[in-house]
Amino acid sequence: MTSTDPSKSTQTNSTPPNSTPPNGGGARPVSVLVSGAGIAGTALAYWLERYGFRVTVVERAPELRGGGQPVDIRGDALRVVERMGLLEEVRARRTGLRGMSLVDGEGRELKRTTEWTASGGPVGGPDVEILRDELAELIAGAAGPGVEYRFGDSIDTLVQYRDGVQVRFRSGAEQSFDLVVGADGLHSNTRRLVFGPEADYLHPINTYIAGWSVPNHLGLDRWEVIHPSGAGWHCMAMTVRDNTELRVFVGFATDEPLDRMLPRDRTEQRRLVADRCAHLRWEVPRFLEAMWETEAFHYDVVAQIRMDRWSNDRVALLGDAGYCCSPFTGQGTSVALTAAYVLAGELRAAGGDHRTAFPAYERRLRDHVAANQAILELTAGLYGSDAEPGDDGVPGDALAGFDLPGVEMEAAFRAATAFDLPDY
Question: Which of its termini does the chain have fewer beta carbons within 10 Å around, N or C?
Fold first, then answer.
């Protein structure tokens, strides 16, 4: 049995077999199941365990996921990382890019800057750009021994009772928890089970991004290279892991139906990307060939999740599952880190009472999330020109605004630092 309509109560007056009342009259810690071992999920687990909750993290992948894009930590999120005792390690792992170049279809450099990069913002500023997988590893490694991980599994069904949530996992195991938090990303399974179909909350902008790792055969040194090709197409490559790897990203826009553009099979995703990008020049053909040889591959639509509320009784959503900002805002990770800190803090302040904690969590964060999601209106047009490419494979307006970040970056910085981070 699953709940698919938030307007319908999922509570009953009974208690599932073999369960105990929440808190056991204060004799046992509140148990929380966190779905998803990404940055939001691992950060929430860190704080909850620190506050004395009993935490289980279920993750569909067999281990912490590798690959993924570089992410930015700025503003209040840096303070959260500092309070976790991880700021020094995070800064040591930063990508450390020195600048970026714009190249044409033959690889000729048209422009360069050492002032900022498209992926990380101002060079030498206080913000930290780090690989998503490395950040998740650091956070998971910092958590205490009270966090249990269930890798290679996921939630199959959940039923909310008066005194808890009964969960059946895909593995067949069943267990009751006091609370469940869905931190399972843009295509959240938890959200679907409790709040209904994804289509009710997903707001795509008809742009798709694929990313994967290749060896640094270009010999770049802490550098980022962008090749725009017009009509919404672009390719970006940046050095990571002490210049040993390149993270390559291609993006393209299309009005084709979402279901046609998002095959579930990874091989089909690679085939779609290869077909769509076959006409691109510069190093793209070589990148596409290497795409078939790497496990570190990710493909998805650029979208936001917008919801009127982020909780339904004993189940709450965190990060992209409840309010994805989209990669084009550069704020998803910072919002997730801040939100995990606030959600855990409100649960601690409420003594584990979700009836108080979940509404307080949303009240504190709703305006902050809205400000960060609004950045998409300013940044979406930066990742591919609608102009047709010239003979050099670059649209004529691609050079405009290349030297310095514009108002969209200023908006991102304001949104990142406007939140009043509470003490718990």
Answer: N
